[in-house]
């Protein structure tokens, strides 16, 4: 019971909200950490130290800029789905070090939706 | 051939449906002919699915690009080894592998129990065929591995470069073997509940399959970790990703069951608990298979949101309802024959071990599904990260290792002070000696969890060493055998016990490796030009020169690193990054070579004390102008050059770019890491696997002889003196 109580309390207090770009663009509290998910927009830039890229909604064009420092995953490319922990700083979102993960290039491809 | 494959799947479905009906009718009527027919249906399903899998395997080996799976996951230039393992790199092929393995293990289990468990086996047959029916139905009605494309493309997409690693190719078969082997005890547990045979017989008869499931799943998990360590370029081996977690959960409940089953066999206790663990392991195995394919959780493993989610959820719902319903139905008969005599007993320690393992499973479950839980409770989807998992997993792992040292030597029923003194002096001394040494060395004081883990591991080594020493001494005293012969005889006479001890040593070694490599890891991300040196944890790594390589599959840019310590040469490492061309022609004739998939090949010097691990991120930006210029020229020449001429020119241009990078490399980014004792993880897994094999291995007839009463008495006397 102790373990269960600890889990419930700490999971809510230590968790980050999972958000898509349009949700963060509509309003993100400065200093608060979010788990940003979406697709990489064309035109990203890596100068060897910082990775500057925009993430858009999976099903829409709204995007937010991210400035990330740390390991750039090998599968990172335009159009790939990414997950990164970010916090807002001014007009951009700062990606927390080594939190950027890019989904595997579809070992099992998503099925095409009808229509 | 694809028609044959599809026909085999339809036939397998029909046979499985027949087998279920025959088994249930046979079990209810008691007519052996129907029961045999049901069992033979399992063999027939295995035979037919073997042909189906063979057809798919052949399509990959022959690079039959008219098969959609082959076209999407292989190519004419894919190496044969990866063509062979191609079937399970796709969703459809991996489902076929799952059900094929299920049919093989089911056949093995039912063949071995064909003259035993007569009341239970027919129900188990029906359950196993129920699993097969579900998975074959998916392949017949939802997604097929034998889809055809006409006309066939001239070339296939090739296997995802990230998957081109030997351990990743073995990872799915091992993982699926673990999952499908867990369905065997699951099916027999359901059979035991329906038939009302609630003793330990079903546990004994399926023990080898449970152990094999545990070992295969464990090896599968570790192969995935090894792939991550050596292929993904970030230096870690575990990220608490939902898909990783999904495979860990049944392994944890399976480990708990292997221990608590001993209490039921010895004392007739924990019947409900054991059934619950086995049923949970089987359901969690299906849950793991579902999570990979559902897309319900954010995971690095983008297996895509597929339409298989709903059928899987329905199937899991049916399994859970059936399991809970059966346990409630039999609750009165499941009461234990005995109660705990004392909290200081082996039963109590095993129970505590079970609580820790199930607690760990609950932590993993809660953290993995927290996004769905939080969304249901608050309307906001939130997720927890690795630090949250570590907060609970680390202390629980320390307790678990400590218990794995106490369990083997504490007495059944009730431990006495004399028993404790006799059995725990050596292990406690080993742990104390370890603590003193660590304090003297100094480092671990600021890493208390690693410190505690090292001491717990020393305690386990003390326990197992003491037990081996006593056993060997007793045998030598009785049979005048040499030391090696006495050791082998001892193990052969009680493979289960000494196999278990070996597993405990292996697990302790694994956790020492995990504790050391996480607590004392040193990482630096640096940007170096040729001639530059970076220092990490006493090692000087010098970027000597750039490398480049072009072959029919990829372009690789890398670096030669000279590793020195105190001026002495330690190793020469060659990390690189490979660029696989994209099939998208719109990216430009040259550009597509750099816009496809990329993979890291790490430079690693592995050692028992520490690994020196390196990865490179070459900077190709200075080549971009040349690539763009090349793309323009090739586009302008399109249609004016013969295909062979264009191909030759393109090859020359790619080689020129590679040579340009090698001769005039821009500064590259490196991740340099010194990871203490990481190799202990892989070593520990091998030790644990050896222990599992010792426990599973069939006992030779000579060792199976029942011990005579006189021999038993003499052995007991010798052991008490030892």
Structure, described:
Chain A has 115 residues and is α+β, with helices and mostly antiparallel strands. Chain A has a single domain (16-102), classed as Beta Barrel (OB fold (Dihydrolipoamide Acetyltransferase, E2P)). Chain A is 17% helix and 37% strand. Chain A is built from two helices and eight strands; from the N terminus they run αβαβββββββ. In chain A, strands 2-4-5-7-6 form a five-stranded mixed barrel. The longest helix of chain A has 13 residues, at 2-14. The model of chain A is unreliable at 106-115 (pLDDT under 50). Chain B has 722 residues and is α+β, with helices and mostly antiparallel strands. Chain B is built from 22 helices and eleven strands. In chain B, the strands form two sheets. In chain B, strands 3, 4, 5, 6, 7 and 8 form a six-stranded antiparallel β-sheet that branches. At the A-B interface, helix 1, strand 1, strand 6 and strand 8 of A face helix 12, strand 1, helix 13, strand 8 and strand 11 of B. Strand 1 (16-19) of chain A pairs antiparallel with strand 1 (382-383) of chain B, so a sheet runs across the interface.
């Amino acid at each position: 019971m102790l373990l269960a109580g600890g889990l419930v309390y700490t999971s809510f207090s230590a968790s980050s909200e999972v958000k898509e770009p349009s949700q963060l663009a509509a309003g993100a509290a400065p200093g608060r950490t979010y788990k940003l998910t979406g697709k990489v927009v064309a035109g990203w830039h890596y100068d060897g130290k910082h990775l500057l890229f925009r993430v858009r909604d999976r099903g829409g064009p709204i995007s937010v800029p991210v400035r990330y420092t740390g390991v750039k995953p090998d599968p990172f490319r335009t159009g790939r789905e990414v997950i990164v922990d970010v916090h807002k700083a001014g007009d951009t979102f700062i990606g927390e070090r080594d939190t950027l993960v890019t989904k595997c290039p579809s070992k099992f491809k998503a099925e095409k939706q009808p229509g | 051939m694809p028609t044959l494959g599809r026909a085999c799947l339809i036939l397998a479905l029909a046979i499985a449906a027949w087998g279920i009906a025959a088994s249930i009718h046979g079990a209810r009527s008691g007519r052996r002919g129907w029961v045999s027919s049901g069992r033979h249906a399992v063999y027939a399903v295995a035979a037919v699915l073997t042909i189906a899998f063979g057809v798919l395997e052949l399509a990959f080996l022959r690079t039959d690009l008219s098969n959609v799976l082959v076209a999407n996951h292989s190519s004419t230039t894919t190496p044969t080894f990866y063509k062979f393992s191609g079937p399970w790199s796709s969703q459809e092929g991996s489902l076929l592998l799952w059900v094929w393995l299920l049919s093989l293990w089911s056949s093995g289990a039912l063949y071995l129990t064909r003259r035993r468990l007569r009341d239970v086996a027919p129900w188990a047959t029906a359950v196993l065929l129920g699993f097969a029916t579900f998975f074959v139905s998916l392949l017949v009605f939802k997604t097929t591995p034998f889809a055809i494309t006409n006309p066939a493309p001239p070339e296939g997409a090739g296997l995802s470069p990230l998957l081109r690693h030997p351990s990743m190719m073995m990872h799915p078969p091992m993982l699926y073997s673990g999952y499908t082997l867990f369905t065997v005890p699951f099916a027999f547990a359901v059979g035991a509940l329906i038939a009302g045979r609630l003793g330990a017989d079903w546990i004994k008869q399926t023990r080898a399959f449970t152990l094999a499931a545990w070992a295969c799943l464990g090896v599968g998990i570790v192969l995935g970790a090894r792939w991550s360590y050596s292929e993904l370029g970030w230096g870690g081996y575990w990220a608490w990703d939902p898909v990783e977690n999904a495979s860990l959960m049944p392994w944890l409940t399976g480990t708990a069951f292997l221990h608590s089953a001993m209490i039921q066999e010895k004392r007739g206790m924990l019947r409900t608990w054991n059934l619950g663990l086995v049923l949970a392991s089987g359901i969690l195995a299906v849950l793991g298979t579902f999570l990979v394919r559902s897309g319900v959780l954010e995971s690095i493993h983008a297996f895509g949101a597929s339409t298989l989610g709903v059928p899987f959820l329905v199937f899991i719902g049916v399994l859970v309802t059936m399991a809970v319903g059966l346990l409630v139905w039999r609750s009165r008969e499941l009461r234990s024959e005995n109660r705990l005599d004392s909290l200081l007993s082996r039963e109590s320690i095993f129970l505590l071990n079970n609580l820790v393992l199930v607690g760990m499973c609950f932590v993993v479950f809660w953290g993995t599904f927290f996004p769905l839980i939080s969304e249901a409770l608050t309307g906001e989807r939130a997720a927890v990260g690795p630090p949250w998992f570590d907060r609970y997993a680390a202390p629980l792992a320390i307790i678990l290792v400590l218990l794995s040292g106490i369990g083997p030597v504490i007495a059944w029923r009730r431990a006495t002070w004399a028993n404790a003194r006799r059995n725990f002096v050596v292990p406690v001394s080993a742990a104390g000696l370890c603590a003193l040494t660590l304090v003297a060395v100094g480092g671990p004081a600021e890493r208390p969890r690693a410190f505690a883990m090292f001491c717990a591991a020393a305690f386990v080594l003390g326990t197992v060493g003491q037990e081996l020493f006593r056993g060997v001494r007793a045998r030598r005293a009785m049979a005048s055998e040499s030391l090696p012969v006495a050791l082998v005889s001892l193990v052969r006479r009680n493979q289960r016990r000494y196999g278990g001890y070996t597993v405990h040593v292996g697990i302790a070694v694994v956790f020492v490796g995990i504790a050391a490599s996480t607590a004392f890891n040193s990482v630096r991300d640096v940007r170096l030009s040729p001639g530059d040196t970076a220092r990490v944890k006493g090692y000087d790594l010098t970027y000597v020169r750039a490398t480049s390589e072009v072959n029919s599959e990829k372009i690789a840019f890398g670096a030669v690193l000279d590793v020195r310590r105190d001026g002495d040469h330690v190793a020469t490492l060659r990390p690189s990054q490979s660029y696989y061309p994209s099939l998208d022609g719109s990216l430009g004739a040259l550009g597509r070579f750099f816009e496809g998939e990329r993979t890291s090949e790490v430079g690693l010097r592995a050692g028992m004390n520490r690994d020196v691990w390196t990865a490179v991120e070459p900077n190709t930006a200075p080549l971009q102008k040349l690539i763009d210029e090349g793309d323009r020229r090739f586009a302008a020449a399109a249609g004016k050059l013969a295909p062979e001429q264009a191909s030759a020119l393109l090859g020359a241009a790619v080689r020129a770019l590679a040579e340009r990078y090698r001769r005039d490399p821009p500064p590259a980014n490196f991740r340099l890491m010194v990871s203490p004792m990481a190799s202990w993880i892989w070593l520990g897994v091998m030790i644990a696997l050896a222990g599992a094999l010792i426990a599973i291995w069939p006992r030779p007839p000579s060792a199976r002889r029942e011990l005579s009463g006189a021999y038993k008495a003499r052995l007991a006397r010798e052991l008490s003196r030892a």
